[in-house]
């Protein structure tokens, strides 16, 4: 099977590329390397087609979908704070870029598009766990643009003859997630601080909670979504179905790293939600999804990778 992974040089995208290559798929990657890195694809060099191009460039997207059966659309400017600083770029990449992908996929008679949506669609609504019947309530340009992408997926399925599935990821973590950007996610930031002996920063009181989801579970969901017969037109939560506060998370990270630390507390960040936890019953029903790696096991696998990656640099 020939498939396209947009954002395939990124954290989740590169894990998906490795899984697809391992299953014998013919993989094309479209990436502009804005946050993705070439080293993420080192192990599959020569076994994939790499197109260095931009989702904002329709001709690059058209070239990338040529002859493809399934598109996994993960390319994005994936940061809440960055979207608050650069709302126009967020719209161009995350919303317009998605429209480019869907239009090109339809024109190329792609069988199915699997879209990386986001739990940020739920905003700060107090109801837990979050289920797909709840209203969309984005709090940041990033969340609004991802919601736009979801709506486009529904429209293309309903009226444009293209099967699309949206997967709302909840706080993904795992190997190849970078700790070294100003917009880095909390697990690699905490892990880097704990391993290097510096103090991790917690924004707010640390009692905010998230449904931390190991990347392998997300890859499994993507593979299921490409084939599940009843999935088209659905927007489906992908998480572990549990939640952990940042304080609890830090203590688990200290445990797997065999070190201790004292965090520094700074002001809560604009646009951040308080609590998040996925109801994964729709994913179970529509995709046959079941998370196979829990938080503790995922943190251990991430810490192992992290140590090796640090030693190599
Ligand atoms: N990491 C999470 O917890 C999480 C949660 C919800 C949703 N998502 C979504 O999952 C997807 C992957 O996220 P990630 O965490 O792997 O982030 P990432 O930054 O590692 O990956 C994004 C990839 O998209 C590429 N990209 C960015 N702008 C592009 C453009 N204009 N043209 C072509 N390529 C471009 C980047 O270079 C990068 O390789 C994103 O769509 C993100 O919104 C991630």
A few lines on this structure:
The chain is built from 10 helices and 13 strands. The chain has 313 residues and is an alpha/beta fold. The chain has 2 domains: 217 residues, NAD(P)-binding Rossmann-like Domain (Rossmann fold); 68 residues, UDP-galactose 4-epimerase, domain 1.
Task: Give a description of the structure.
This protein has 313 residues and is α/β, with parallel strands linked by helices. It has two domains: 2-173 and 213-241 and 277-292, NAD(P)-binding Rossmann-like Domain (Rossmann fold, 3-Layer(aba) Sandwich), CATH 3.40.50; 186-208 and 243-275 and 301-312, UDP-galactose 4-epimerase, domain 1, CATH 3.90.25. The chain is built from ten helices and 13 strands. The chain has helices spanning 11-22, 58-65, 80-85, 87-107, 141-159, 186-196, 215-225, 246-257, 281-287, 295-312; strands spanning 2-6, 26-31, 48-52, 70-73, 112-118, 163-169, 172-173, 201-203, 209-210, 213-214, 235-238, 244-245, 264-266. It has a seven-stranded parallel beta sheet with strand order 3-2-1-4-5-6-11, with helices on both faces. Helix 5 links the parallel strand 5 and strand 6. Helix 1 (11-22) crosses helix 7 (215-225) and helix 8 (246-257) packs across helix 10 (295-312). The chain is globular, with a radius of gyration of 18 Å. The mean pLDDT is 95. Bound molecules: nicotinamide-adenine-dinucleotide. Residues 7, 9-13, 30-36, 54-56, 74-78, 93, 97, 116, 118, 169, 171-172, 185 line the site of nicotinamide-adenine-dinucleotide (NAD).
